[in-house]
Amino acid sequence: MATPRIIGRAAPACLSCLRRVTLQTTSTTTGTAIGAMQARGKATKAELEDLQGIPVRLLEDIVGFGRKDTIMRVKPGRMRNYWFPRGRAEYMTKQRFREMGLTEAAIGVRDRTFGAPRSVLDAMETRDVEAAFIEGEAAAARKRKEALTLPPEQVHELLANLLPPVLTFERKPIAVPTPTATETAAPADEVMRRSPLIASNAVVSGEEGDEVSSATPTVTVPKPPSGPIAIFGSVSTVDILGRIAEILAADTANGGRAALDQGAVTIVGLEEGEDRIKRIGVFEVEIVAGKGLEPIIRRVEVVPEALPEI
């Protein structure tokens, strides 16, 4: 039996499509039931993306795409910004197809498993390739971090030896306190001056019969608020961790290898609902370098920001 010809369009590339077209042609010519045709499942989003884009030819092996000389479709931005400037692939124009003696039927599909580690290939059975890639990268990052960071016991020793008793932070207060002061008015002249136009025997108010008050007027400045003084901004655990990192940097050998996350610092004495310092004062903080280790107790003092000199 002769192979059926497909007229008006390019031949399908995958085996499932070839079987479907073959069965369809056979059923038309020999009367085979249409139910014998093989139908493909719904294409995934990744498969649809692999069929879009511009045709290119790989000039080297690229992990997750394919071997050298593979022709496939990729997004124009990937080709324009990454592959073509680095000489990893070339554009497959109509002229280039003719020069190579090929047609667009030679365009293949991206091989997402090419060059992937064994864990990714095993994940193909559960259709979880992306999750396997992410997990592999996360595991590699954890191994690199463990190789570069110090054990919690050494971090605890560094903190105990290098951290000062008090960590000081300057913040601009919202209400700046002013000292209480009493201003006294200048006393009146002992001798009242007389105008030369007034007769010498004329009585001037204040000289006779009138009593001049001896009380001295005073002006009192209001007292500053007695409650806590709020500040612009705040002092959070991130700020405290940043200050700790600056102090540990003095140890050039091991200071940069001490790893502390945000949960390692706890501010003691905050009001309910607060997670950071928002007022002037002295607060206690606990720093835990690792599970099972005793917390290191230090104080955080928030002071008013010094005014710039004029």
Automatic annotation (TrEMBL):
Pfam families: Ribosomal_L9_N
Residue intervals of the Ribosomal protein L9 domain: 55-99
One biological process term in Gene Ontology: translation
UniProt keyword list: Ribonucleoprotein, Ribosomal protein
Gene Ontology cellular-component annotations: ribonucleoprotein complex; ribosome
Highest rank taxon of the organism: Eukaryota
Keyword Methyltransferase: no
InterPro entries: Ribosomal_bL9, Ribosomal_bL9/RNase_H1_N, Ribosomal_bL9_N, Ribosomal_bL9_N_sf
Single Gene Ontology MF annotation: structural constituent of ribosome
Family assignment from sequence similarity: Belongs to the bacterial ribosomal protein bL9 family.
Protein name: Ribosomal protein L9 domain-containing protein
Organism, as annotated: Microdochium bolleyi
Upper classification of the organism: Eukaryota, Fungi, Dikarya, Ascomycota, Pezizomycotina
